[in-house]
Write a structure and sequence with these properties.
Its main location: membrane. With about 750 residues, this protein is mainly beta. Helices cover about 15% and strands about 30% of the residues. The radius of gyration is 68 Å and the shape is elongated.
Length: about 750
Amino acid sequence: MFFVVEEYTGTEPLYVGKIHTDSDEGEGNIKYTITGEGAGTIFIIDELTGDIHATERLDREEKASYTLRARAKDRLSNDLLESESEFVIKVQDINDSEPKFLEGPYIGSVAELSPIGTSVMKVTASDADDPTYGSSAKVVYSVMDGEKIFTVDRNEGIIMTAVADLDRETQDRYELVVKATDMAGQMGGLSGSTTVTIVITDVNDNPPRFPQKMYQFSVSEGAAVGTPVGRIIATDADMGENTDMSYLIKEEGDLFKVTTDVETQEAIVSIKKPLDFESKRTHNVVVEAVNKHVDPRFVDLGSFRDQTIVRVSVSDIDEPPIFQPADGTIMEVQEDTKVGALVGVISARDPDVKNKHVRFSIDRTTDQEMIFHIDPDSGAITLGKVLDRETAGWHNITVRAVETENHTMASHSAVSIRILDVNDNPPELATPYEASICEDAKPGQLIHTISVVDKDEPQSGHRFYFTLAPEGSSNRHFTLWDVKDNTAGIRTQRSGFNRHEQNVYFLPILVVDSGPPSLSSTGTLTIHVCGCDPEGAIQSCNATAYSMSAALSPGALIALLVCILILIVLVLLILTLKRHRKGQRMAEDEEDMRDNVIKYNDEGGGEQDTQAYDMSALRNLYDFPEAKSCDSGPDIRSLPQWIQANRVGGGAEGAAAAADFSLFKGYIRKKVEQADADLSVPPYDSFQTYAFEGNSSPALSLSSIHTMSTTSEQDFSYLSDWGPRFRQLAGYYAPANPEEEGS
């Protein structure tokens, strides 16, 4: 390692050092070279001797050391005689750099009235010299200007207060010059300085102050509540939130109030209640200003509040009349008071000094029926119509008072008139008026509780008395029990009620109120006798239908009748359509036999079962019109009539004809020919078969297949009573005459 002094100012290169190899015997066969930082520029070497010189002025603050490599070679062969070696040239420091405040200028702050020694801020100076070599880089601090107010720590650079009475209101900032000297402040040391600005921050050390001790304002007595009277402001030498203040009213606070304008910090004095020139013409309002944020450290400096007087002069105006009382009047009158009687007197006066005459009237929009009248001069309210508390218990009217000389000066007042009740309505039984008992009711059983309604409202409350009416006093079935709570109970007096003997009882009940005067009414309680289950639940009553119909309103009855009428019309329309269709079918030929094959595979319940199949097929089977064609031979009636005629006409011959099936064949053939010749007849045949219909039929099967062979002795003569359609069937099943059997 080699050392070289910085800042060399000589004219010759500065000798640094020498490199040498053991192989060098001084014969000049060795060549020395260097490489690395500054080699050949800053540092040069003598190839023969190995001496190193610095050709430039060095600055340690720019570069403190240089690293180089040395080589020794054979001058002829240029071979390395030794391995390359590395060495360092270190620049040796001298005190050539003054301390510098790299962060300046500085700005700090300290609160006013801070105690001595309060730390304000710290300043720092740096020295580029080598701190490890001598004292070139050792810095000390001092205050060049302002040392009477502030001081600085010599070694640390901390600025502190030197006095305790810093006052922001007197001076709000200070500028200091702080010097930093190296060489520990010794002679010959270098120094640097910086400017430090110290701002004095505010504390709440000043109370608010009103510039004036009295303010004067004027306001009209007619000004509305909330109208501002004036603005005042208290000043505060402090700043920021320390100037925030609130205002209070110490006197006359019942008529005036004060608020604070948050932007201007002004006090706004406004009206709290209506002013009256006639009562008081001048008001002295004491307003106090108080700091919101009081610092307890400075309480001993004095009171942080101030007061002033706001004198408010009230000016007179023409005012409308004033009612007494101002918030309305309540009057009472009996509902039986006669027309023209006095209800009450309303009072109003002119509040002005002149006290002008006042006239009264009723706002007819509040009394359209003109139930009340008022005397325009005295304000006496009288009755104009008969009252009824049950119709309207209260009447609310508005009375208008106006100055006689100035009709624009008017005011209104609400008058509430309460109608006092008199006993003019008899009590009545509350609905329902019906009750029910079971046939097996026991004696003394409570079957119903009755209550009473009364439109009157006596002040002492209702009290009703119950008893049986004279016409019901001889009643031996029920008793009336007055419960004494304005209700009464109905109890049975005996047992063994029978609804078949008597299903309804009427019990007249007399109800009397307590008056005065006492009024009464008679109501009838209808008691129905009903059948009940073992648990006492009603099952049926003879009067149920009557009760339901009686409960229907006239509108419901009309609707029910309309529905029934519509149903009747629909039924008649359906029957008419059926008859019309039937007439069309029978218009062709009375003996037209259509072969409709109708097959029933189910087993019905016999001839009594009319819902199993369409009975119209049976009813219309032989009901045919007469044939229209004249080419088909003589006139032929329906088969049942023809066969019946044969049986009536001739005994055994009729029986033989009935058994002759050729007769049926001829009949059918003739009908087929008529159907084929008549183009208006539908092209189909009708044939009807009847199978077995069930075991429950007392006539067994109606089929003619087994009829002739049956041995049943049952009498079927009742078939003749079923009408013309069953006469043919009755002819088949009628028992033979004894004469016919004998022959």
